[in-house]
Design goal:
- The structure is a single chain.
- The longest helix is centred in the middle third of the chain and has 66 residues.
- The N terminus is likely disordered.
- α9 runs antiparallel to α10.
- This protein has 280 residues and is mostly helical.
Amino acid sequence: MDAHGHLRSPVRAALVAARAGFLATCSFAAAHWVLAADAFAAPAPVEESQGEVVRDRPVVRDDDPVESDAEVNTLYYEYQLLQDEVRRLHGVVEELNHRMDRLEGEQRERYIELDQRLLELRGGEAATGNGEPGAPDAPSDVPPVPVTEREAYNVAIELVNSARPLPESEQRPQYRRALALFREIISNYPNGEFTANAFYWRGEIHLALKEYEEARAHFAQVELLYDDHPKVPDALYKLGEVYNVLGDTDRAREYLNRVINDHPTSTAAGLARKYIAELR
C-alpha cells in the first residue's frame, strides 16, 4: 500500500499542477480576449476623430453657398476690371490713331507746301532772268514786306479786295502778289496772330484761280493746325466746296455737316445748310 500510495502521490501532484497551469492559462487568455474585445468594441472618440480629419484634410464642399457666392463675386469683379482695362486701351488706340492721322495729314500738307514753294522759286528765277511775267508768287512782283505782321497782312488783304472787281487777266498777277505776301507772313511769323488767316486766304486765292488741290491743301492746314481758330468754320465750308468741285460729293457733305454740327451758330453754318441743300 505504501508502495501503491507512493506511486499515486506524484501522479496526483502532477495532475494538480497541470490543472492549475491550465486554469491560469485559460484565465490569462480570457482576460486578454476580454480586453481585446472591449478595445475593439469601444467607439473611437468622435470629437477627436473629427478634429483630426479637420486638421489633416479640410473638407471642401462644392455646394457650399457662401464659398460659391464669394467665388462668383470675385470673378465678376475681375471681369469688370478687365472690361475697364479694355475700354481704356481702346481709348488709347483711338487717340493714337487720331494722332497718326493728323501727323500724316500735316506731313502730306508740308510736302505740298514745299512743292509749291519750289515752283514759286523756279518761277521767280525765270522772271528775273528773262524779264517775263513770273510764275506763281514771283518774288520780282512782290512789294516790300512791311515791318510788322499786321501791316503785311493788311497789305495782302488789300491786294485781294482790289483784285476782285478786276477782269480775270488783271486779277491773276495781283492774286500772285497777295499769295507771296501771305507766304512771307507764314514763313516770318509761324506762330503769329494772322498765320491761320494767311493759310485761309492762300486757299481762297487758289480757289479763285481754280487751283483746287492747292486750295484744298491750305484750307486743310487751318483745320489741322488751328482747330480752335475762328477761321476753322470757314475753312471747313471751303473744303466742302472744293471737294464738290473735285467730284467727291460724299466728302463735300461730310465737311458741310461738320460745319453745321460743330459750329451751328457760325455764318459758315448758314452757308453750309444752303450749299448742302443744293447737293441733294
